[in-house]
Amino acid sequence: MPFNINELSQRIHFPLLLFLDYDGTLADFSPNPDIIQPDKEIIEILTTLKLHEQISLGIISGRKLDNLMKLIPIPGIILAGTYGIEIRMPDGSIIHRKSFNNYRPTLETIKSKWKNLLRDLNGFYLEDKGWSLAIHAQDANDLDAEQVLTAARMGAEDQLNKKIFQVLPGTKFLEICPLAADKGKCVEFLLRKNSHPNNSIIYFGDDDKDEKAFSVVQAKDGIAVRVGMDLLSKGKEDFRLKNPQAVRNWLKSLISSLK
User: Fold this and answer.
1) CB of 234 within 8 A of CB of 240?
2) pTM for the whole structure
3) How is domain 5-97+181-257 classified at the CATH fold level?
4) 206, 231, 233, 258: which has the highest count of C-beta atoms within 10 A?
5) Is the pLDDT at 250 greater than 60, yes or no?
C-alpha cells in the first residue's frame, strides 16, 4: 500500500466527504482517555477544512461524544462518539442511533462488578463512556492485565444480552458496548443523510474498528487509508500513512491545493 501523498491526492475529487478517526489517526494516543487536551494544530486544520464549501467533514471516534466535543470545539462538523452511536450533526442537533435506556441498566450492573474487581489494583483504569464501559490496562504488567481482563470479561458476559451488546477486546484493553456502536454502521447512517450522493469519500483510521468503515466506504468507490505501521494488519486499506503526523501533513497539502 503506497505512502505517496501525491498518489493519494490524485484519487480524490470534489465534492468530498472526509471521515477521520481521532486517536491514533489525527493524534497520538492519550495516556488517559478522560484527560482532554485539545491540540491547536488539529483544531486549525479542521477549522480550515470545514470552511471549504466542497468538503464535508466528520470525526468518528471511540471516545464519548462529550469528550470529543471538548477536543474539537468546532461547530458545523459531524462529531460521532462511542463508535458512532451518538452523533452531533453539523446543525448542532444530537442523534442517538439507539435508545440509551435500553443499555444503561446492564452497564450499571457491570460497572459495579468491575469497580469491585479493580479495587486496590494498580495500573488499571475504568472508563465510563455512558454508552459503554472500558478497562484500560496499559500501565499494568502483562500477567496481571491478562488475568484481570479475563476475569472482567467472564463476569460481564453473564450479564449481557448478546443480541444487543458486544465485547471489544484489545491489547491490554476490554470494552462492553452496544452492537450498534459500529463505525461502519455509523458511516452507512451518515451516507444515507448525505445530500450529495456523488461525493468522493475518504476515510482515515488506524485499527479494526475503522476497518468496518473501510468496507462501507470502499463499496461506494471511496478510499480507505490506514494509519500506522502494524505489519500484522489485514491489508483492507487502499493506502497507508505512517502516523498521525503524516495524516496532518496530507491534510495540510489538501488545504494548500484548495488555495
Assistant:
1) no
2) 0.94
3) Rossmann fold (3.40.50)
4) 206
5) yes
